[in-house]
Amino acid sequence: MNRRQLLQSLSGVAASAILTPELAQAAAQLKQGAAAGINWQVAFADVDADLPRAPMKRVHGRAPGDLAGSLYRNGPGKFHRPGGSVDHWFDGDGLMRAFRVSDGAATLEARFIDTHKRRVETAANAVIQPGFGTAGKAGAQVRNADDTNAANISVMSMGGELWALWEGGSPVAMDPKDLSTKGMKTLRDDLVHMPFLAHPRRDPGGDVWSLGLSGTQAIVWRVSADGALKSADMVSLPMASYVHDFTATKRHLILILQPWIQDRMVMPYSESFTWRPKLGSKVLVLDKDDLAKRRIYELPPFFAFHFGSAWEETDGTLRFDGCFTEDARFATTNGKAFMKGTYEPEPTPILTLVTLRPDGRATLDATGVAAEFPRVDGRRSGDTRRYTIHATATAPNSPLFHGVATYDWKAGKSDSYDFGASQLVEEAVFVARPGGSDELDGWLLAPSVNTRAKATELHVFDARRVAAGPLCTWRSDHVLPVSLHGVFVKA
Amino acid sequence: MKTLPLVLSLIVGMAVLTPAVRAAETSSLTVTFSGITAAKGVILFTVVNSEAAYGDKAPPSAQAMLPVTTKTVTKVITGLAPGRYAIKAFHDINGDGKMNANPFGIPTEPFAFSNNAVGNMGPAKWADASFEVKAGANTHSIVID
Q1: 3-state class of A30 per DSSP?
Q2: Which residue among A27, A49, A162, A340 is least enclosed by CB atoms within 10 Å?
Q3: With helix as H, strand as E and coil as C, how does A377-398 read?
Q4: Which residues of B touch A (CB under 8 A)?
């Protein structure tokens, strides 16, 4: 029983009448935030209705004339209902957004993904389905994982459709033109409701790889660019780790197994996991062409949600980067605190290079750079590369990230721009300049929530001159909650 | 996965062949399944008269195998004593006699319970699925898809 249920179960006492420690802390932080002029809570406020396509206003600079296409982004967009609300940021209803850019102008639209969960909860006027960090309530209807699928983490472009991705169930197909939901994607009848992670890895110009996890079992999905399943194979894992992302070289799949271990199956899902640092971390490397060929590397305990793409060097050394924290506390604390309007300052994730050597040794090299939401120039995915694109800049009085950066692994240097604590900056996506081929020859597209203007903004950077600030900024008349991950589809 | 016991309990439940209760042949129950998306295979279902039988700890009152050739199918169960009953059903689309599951144990063939009750990571509860069968003719409709 969580605190809210406990409070509600106290007969004759309205939960809202009790000032809990969380509410008291929220009030104090609201005061503190207000003193600094930062009302960051607007970045986690509910959206009540779909947002029809509307022009954004250009408030700074000028967009490159040859930048044309749509940036689709997904993330939770509704958290509260009269009869009960989510307990965790990651359990809000998936809200698909489309920033469409052409001829120097931009529009924004957003539409909720029509999931079973959203239908059941709309009918109940309450959040009742269990989730990552939210317990199921009376009336919950769960026949399979897709009944709890919030479709709220990321989005990929497949065979002319958008697939909204969660991590515990099926992709949800959508129409990119109007963001209408087509339905759950079953890649093969006998694999209905199998999980499909929100971080697929795309071979440049080729297949897409994804995973689905259940304890020490994983399904390895290989899907062709038109959305057809090529293969689905089961592999066993050395540890029942929480896996949100994985990485890949041209030839390998690399599964990073951290010591946040599933030792039971309960709801909310995140409570099935226990932090067991004594186990250390393991890295499982599989050969794409023969999944039975595997190597396991040992590393110290760490936690990371996200990794950059991996590459193989001529001597067989494998390298990739990730945004590492010392434990899984964001998943268990601030993801919930945001929903109460509070947050606890915590150590920022640090961009860290992982090296797996042919002799079986594995090492970690931390850059000291604050980083989350790592991305790469997609043309280099799985190949040697010099740069990582990431969110950066944290502040004591405002959560998440306030800047955009690239990190140059060759020079060991950052190129970054900090908007300041009043802007909550989202993941930046690389868009190649038409006709260009050099790494980072193009732009970074990063939205933000401008908490002062109470508006969603879209910024365009020259990817090779981030510190110079945005080339162009557009502002919407609306504010949408912070989104998680996106994909750019060329016009 | 939590859903595995559900699969097993349905399969085990179907496999136990026991004669229907004949003590008081005063009720009939016409069961209609609708919402069928694949008009093939069979619907296998059991009718139980107690929470114990619902949990496969006692024999069912009746069971039936119903060929699916249309989007709505009906079966009449006779010889029931008046009382509280519940129905557990699954649609064996490929006709292999089993409730198929994906590699993580999640059912891949449709299943349903009386009152269209839905469980929370497992079978619907007896309290939600049970209904009254009175003396004479009774009807009950279930959506299975």
Answers
A1: helix
A2: A49
A3: CHHHCCCCCCEEEEEECCECCE
A4: 1-3, 100, 102-104, 106-108, 111, 118-121
Q: Do B121 and A195 touch (CB under 8 A)?
A: no
B143–chain A nearest CA distance, Å: 14
Q: What average pLDDT does the segment A285-306 reach? A: 98
* Residue carrying structure tokens 């399944």: B33
The CA distance from A281 to A293, in Å, is 20
Distance CA(A402)–CA(A421), nearest Å, equals 6
pLDDT of residue A428: 98
- Chain B nearest-CA distance from A147, in A, is 10
Out of A142, A194, A265, the one facing B102 most closely (by C-beta) is: A194
Per-residue model confidence (pLDDT) at position B12: 40
Three-class SS state of A184: strand
Tokens 């933000």 sit at which residue?
A: A448
Arithmetic mean of pLDDT, A275-280: 98
Instruction: Determine contact, residues A167/A197, Cβ cutoff 8 Å.
Output: yes
Cα distance between the two ends of chain A: 50
pTM comes to: 0.89
pLDDT single digits (tens) A99-127: 999 999 999 999 999 999 999 999 999 99
Q: Tell me which chain B residues have a C-beta less than 8 angstroms from the C-beta of A189.
A: 108
